[in-house]
């Protein structure tokens, strides 16, 4: 499928933010480890989160979709051995979190996925788990999936680098309450993307487990504990909403987005500060935001260390802003669905944008034009590149339907606000 985007002069209206993908993953998996019935309200049901749901079912949990809710009958940590290899498709979050959780199942569990997922580096997590007497190996010996996990999580002391993937830390934290002994996890070096770990701790605490974080030692201590069931509502997703926010900022607009919380722990709420610096007006209430797009829209300097998923959005905004936008401290974005630093630079250059690719970011000079670009199978790249089309017109994105991974009704939602885009068959 291809997505064709035309120049749009004005967008306005009220829209509800898509539910958070990150919170949905964590809530499904943690509810699976709780004993008894939990109700998850307003979950995101996308390709990625369904991978987590299906993996939890394969490990013995009963999950039922009912009136837009997920009813999860948790296992209390007593998982079963899957009948087959678990195909997690393209979901890196599922892969990383379930690598630790699968050690709670008897016998062996094998995790794999599509060709993109099988390129994801996992060795740092496998090494850290070894210190907790968890046996998890790369079946091909290259530190990448397929990953085979043997039953057994004794606990103890281990360490992990903080500058590779926050999901490795979240993985260990989520499984640790069910270890045989207390777990001490030391974060070595810079702790990048910490807001994602804060989100993990937030969900753990909502389900009754309390990791103890020492800022002085940059470490977590988790005693053996039991997750408690509960009714839990998934908040809106700043990552997915960033495309709505970005469109409103770059065009003439007045757009209200509901279910985005002012006190959210999501690092990607940084997008609000970014668009203010670029010239948009932002009004924030407790559970909604309003963006008013201005005529003036200019480049800025952005440190995305704690919000790497914003890279495609900010890169696209830089391509349609006046002046220069510099994005720094986001080298870890090279290890997402694609090497996002490289793919952003490659595709924006096809639209006539002058882009300098650096080790940890991009320098972008505005001046985008229409053209044909490729998705590289990356949902965030599709939605970000659409912002360029809305501003300059005549942009076609090939193989665009992968937006389903995180924002299943993306074109329909944008069109309700007046955005001119159409999903069509063909490449």
Structural descriptors:
four-stranded mixed sheet; UDP-n-acetylglucosamine1-carboxyvinyl-transferase, Chain; alpha/beta; 2 domains; single chain; 427 residues; 30% helix
How do the strands and helices of this protein lay out in sequence?
Layout: E1 2-5, E2 10-16, H1 21-33, E3 35-41, H2 47-58, E4 62-66, E5 69-75, E6 86-87, H3 92-101, E7 108-112, H4 123-130, E8 136-138, E9 147-150, E10 156-161, H5 166-175, E11 183-188, H6 194-206, E12 212-214, E13 219-222, E14 231-233, H7 238-250, E15 252-258, H8 270-278, E16 281-284, E17 288-293, E18 301-303, H9 311-320, E19 324-328, H10 340-350, E20 354-358, E21 361-365, E22 371-374, H11 379-392, E23 395-398, H12 410-416, E24 421-424
Parallel strand pairs: 2-15, 3-14, 6-7, 10-11, 18-19, 22-23
Antiparallel strand pairs: 1-23, 1-24, 3-5, 4-5, 7-9, 8-9, 11-13, 12-13, 15-17, 16-17, 19-21, 20-21
If you had to describe this structure to a student in words, what would you say it looks like?
30% of the residues lie in helices and 26% in strands. The chain is of the alpha/beta class and 427 residues long. α9 runs parallel beside α11. It is globular, with a radius of gyration of 21 Å. The mean pLDDT is 96.
Task: Characterize this entry briefly.
This protein is α/β, with parallel strands linked by helices and 427 residues long.
Helix content: 25-40%
**If classified by CATH, what would the architecture of the largest domain be?**
Alpha-beta prism
Uncertain residue segments: none
- In CATH terms, what is the fold-level topology of the largest domain? UDP-n-acetylglucosamine1-carboxyvinyl-transferase, Chain
Q: Helices and strands: which structural class?
A: alpha/beta
Task: Quote the beta fraction.
Answer: 25-35%
What is the straight-line distance between the termini?
A: 6 Å
Q: Give the radius of gyration.
A: 21 Å
Overall 3D shape: globular
Query: How many strands, what sense, and barrel or not for the largest sheet?
Result: 4 strands, mixed
Helix count equals 12
